[in-house]
Input
Amino acid sequence: MSPETAGIAGIGLLILLFLFRMPVAFAMAFAGLAGFAYLSDVESALTLLAQDIFETLSAYPLSVIPMFILMGSFAFASGISRRLYMSSYTWFGQWPGGLTVATVLACSGFAAICGSTAATAATMGKIALPEMKKYGYNDVLATGTVASAGTLGILIPPSTVLIVYGILTEESIGRLFIAGVLPGIILSLFFVATVVLICLRKPELGPSGPPTTWAQKVRAVTGIVETITLFLLTIGGLFLGLFSPTQAGAVGASGALFIGMIRRQLRLKKTVDAAKDGLRTACMVLFIIAGATIFGHFLSISNIPFVLAEWIEGLPIPPMAIMSVIIVIYFIGGFFMDSMALIVVTIPIFFPVVVKLGFDPIWFGVMIVLVGEMGVITPPVGVNVFVIKGIAPEIPLYTIFKGILPFLAALIVLTILLMIFPDIATLLPSLVYH
Amino acid sequence: MKNLDTFKKFNRKVSMGIEWVGLVALVLMMVITTVDVIGAKVFLSPVFGSIDIMMLAQLVAMAFAAASTLLIGRHIQVEFFFPLLPKRAQAFMNGIVHLLGFVLFVLIAWQLFIYGHDLQTWREVSPTVRIPLHPVAYAAAFACIPVCLIYLSLLVESVLKVLKR
Output
């Protein structure tokens, strides 16, 4: 068997292991180990296994992941999200559809201190859904809004998926973070426009909440102070070059813990539970990267990425058409796989192609995160939809999936805009890092 | 079945127990980096060897959390195809996957012990504070043993399910 054929067989084995529900991290490690042993020898493959595990799990650049995940866990547990929601609720809740607008804006705010879509959807779902139910909001609109707005967690920095992409492709995490800001803000506005349009057409879907006075509105602004402080401290410090990404994450985690303690939200048990949750999530992510490293070594000696890149480069079609095909592959892949896993598995294959075609790697990172966001809310494995189902078990899955459709349209519109106007993603990094 | 339950309880106890080591390592990572940043920016005196400590603490944190992460089902899996299979086929495929997981982690534990031995023989140390690396490799290998035991219990459970049907 030629190395290329062995490479294809290895990818086939990987897909088979995925289908039979082997954890993504272990499936990649196993397929990579088997493939490497076949193409070189068993002894080298076993040595590579230990080395890759040891070196990946102890790699300093990867320590940014546990730190930002820990920051998100502490922020999640310290009640920051509730104060954020109450703040935007006070400002917008009195308008028709105002609670959904408040939810989108609170999700955007929480996304600025938490890099996970599921955590953003879960935390906001627990707070916003009961409120929307109280004021007679339609289930389709309410659940669709929370599930979709939760996806902002991986686009607005800090984003766990962008960190992993940056590590895998050796791109600057700071640049990737800042590249996500503008698309994140635009997407938030698109989501707000979506709920406003829905409620203008059918006001009965989102009745007005109780009116608030200007004094209440002004007081409510304090609810966003801690989020802004944490964001400025971490992401601001990172952009200004004060911190490395790991330092920014660690300072953010300490800051979120400090806020939780000052607010008396984080008692010992809750703190330990939050830290354990962060530890397990970080463990899952780092093992995926370790598995991807082993699989990546196998792919390298199989020559698949290079042969594919050469072949695609020689195709008589414009690069943008090839990019469109890649984006469609990510879109379809997102239906079946978690966005993080999808990106980790496919980056070693597609990234050389993207670079060879002359696309900006920073732009591509934002693009695939955006497409990955769609996978988080589309069946059959839309994680956020299941998170919302867990919070509101009485609402059928069908209702939630129906609710995400208008937001999916907004995501698709932004994806197309980003393809036509790549500056949306690349403008800020080029200005800041000029 | 009773023996299997006892085995599973033992695995749970061990996995959750050793997770505390990982938790301490994770908190150490956060504290040491924060102190390093404050020390460097405010007092112009960073923590000497903070990067070395971070690297080794991260390895300990992740290795010692591997068993509990597996036990509580935190690892990402592709879920859409498997539920479509008949129950018997599901139990059979579960058995295969658990066997592969068991083999993988036995290999990882074994190879990490060998790697640790090599590091010990070559007297490998961390770059700045020159902490010996081999104890951490041995610790990571040890932390893989509960993962093997969890996979073994899952494998036995799957085999019993297939035989029962």
Summary: Chain A touches chain B through 59 residues (CB under 8 Å).
